[in-house]
Amino acid sequence: MQWTDRIRQIKILLVVAAVFIAVASLLVSHFLVKDLSNEERSKMEVWAQALHSLNEADENTDLSLVLSVMEGNNTIPVVVLDKDGHVADYRNIQINAKDASDTIAYVERMGKRMKDADQFIKIQIGDSTDYQLVCYDDSVMLKRLAAWPYVQLGIVLIFVVVAIFALLSSKRAEQNKVWVGLSKETAHQLGTPISSLMAWTEMLKENYPDDELLPEMDKDVKRLERIAERFSKIGSVPEPVDSSMNEVLQHVIEYMNRRTSQKVQIISNIPSEDIVVKMNASLFEWVIENLCKNAVDAMEGEGTITLSMMSDEQQVIIEVKDTGKGIRKKDVKNVFTPGFTTKKRGWGLGLSLAKRIVEEYHKGHIFVKSSEIGKGTTFRIEMPR
Questions:
Q1: Which of 1-5, 239-243, 306-310 comes out lowest in average pLDDT?
Q2: Is 364 left (phi over 0), alpha (psi -120 to 50) or beta?
Q3: Contact 29, 149 (CB under 8 A)
Q4: Is the pLDDT assigned to residue 189 strictly greater than 80?
Q5: How far apart are CA 226 and CA 285, in angstroms?
Q6: 76 and 44 in contact (C-beta within 8 Å)?
């Protein structure tokens, strides 16, 4: 099973576990809150009955039990309103500093809110039509218990996000190790035959100094040497230096003109003003070459590549536009994913390495600016000055 499949399965399991924990937590908390709410309702019924007994008491009534019940409520906020909505008594109401100047009005508003929430008990006073409303609110403990599931859901969500992020980071780190190891090993393996080719080229120059093919062979050997150098730098962080972006793009255009057929036209929109950027010219040249080669493949060897450059005080913008077959919308987000390719041949590493060079080594940004099936694709690179 591939690593990406395992990552996907683990993410699904984490999400399912989070949903299960959330549902279970909400259900348990709901029943606990409901039971505690019913218990507090029963306590308030007893408290209201004690208040009724106090109102009906005479000089012969033993009030010790009644007062004990009323004094025993130290957690549930209570506001007693008369039939006109005025405050007759209140307990366990926390008064804010800004409302302290008019405490009665504040308590009265709280009592009306409790009444509107249908949290009250009506008690008659004597045989008359007079009555009082014992309005009550949830205790602090009940409110905390009701809020706790949402706090727990937040904690579970953070855990899932951190776990998924850690898995993705681990995946990227493992991929990076593979690419770095592959690059270094490739550079190492190329070193010996390149050295031999350089020696053979020098010997041929001495024996056949006038041969017209030797300069081309020398260029190819130097090209191989440059490729090996690029691979060797993938595993380390190259030190950027001031380099001419115009020269980099011009080198790519010259190389592509030599390596492609006359059916491929390369249009250069490079300003005459020399634009200097801090970069590793060898690696950045590789990025542009890779985009141009992909464009040639997308056009199947016939079409137009437009290489443009713009700049301002903050950044340099390079665009590579082709007239190829384009990229499907569902594939645009995957073009920089290692292993993704639409070619019959290829490893799908070119754009992944290009993204690494641009964004990790040069702190720039590379993306698909636009793509339309049958009309072509435009890649855009934004580099800081």
A1: 1-5
A2: beta
A3: yes
A4: no
A5: 11
A6: yes
Looking at residue 24, its pLDDT comes to 83
How many CB atoms neighbour CB 209 within 10 A? Answer: 8
Give the 3-state secondary structure of 157-181. Answer: HHHHHHHHHHHHHHHHHHHHHHHHH
Residue 376: predicted pLDDT: 93
The reported pLDDT for the residue numbered 371 is 92
Whether the pLDDT of residue 288 is over 50: the answer is yes
Are residues 270 and 252 in contact, defined by beta-carbon separation less than 8 angstroms?
no
Length of the chain: 385
- Whether the predicted pLDDT of 164 surpasses 90: no
* CB-based contact 318:249 (threshold 8 Å): yes
Question: 3-state secondary structure string, the chain?
Answer: CCHHHHHHHHHHHHHHHHHHHHHHHHHHHHHHHHHHHHHHHHHHHHHHHHHHHHHHCCCCCCCHHHHHHHHCCCCCCEEEEECCCCEEEEECCCCCHHHHHHHHHHHHHHHHHHHHCCCEEEEECCCCCCEEEEEECCCHHHHHHHHHHHHHHHHHHHHHHHHHHHHHHHHHHHHHHHHHHHHHHHHHHHHHHHHHHHHHHHHHHHHCCCCCCHHHHHHHHHHHHHHHHHHHHHCCCCCCEEEEHHHHHHHHHHHHHHHCCCCEEEEEECCCCCCEEEECHHHHHHHHHHHHHHHHHHCCCCEEEEEEEEECCCEEEEEEEECCCCCCHHHHCCCCCCCCCCCCCCCCCHHHHHHHHHHHHCCCEEEEEEEECCCEEEEEEEEEC
Q: How far apart are CA 284 and CA 334, in angstroms?
A: 22
Instruction: Report residue 200 as tokens.
Output: 């053979």
Contact present, 296 and 253 (Cβ < 8 Å): no
Distance CA 231, CA 229 (A): 5
Angstrom distance (rounded) from CA 320 to CA 311:
15
- CA-nearest of 261, 354, 248 to 307 is 248
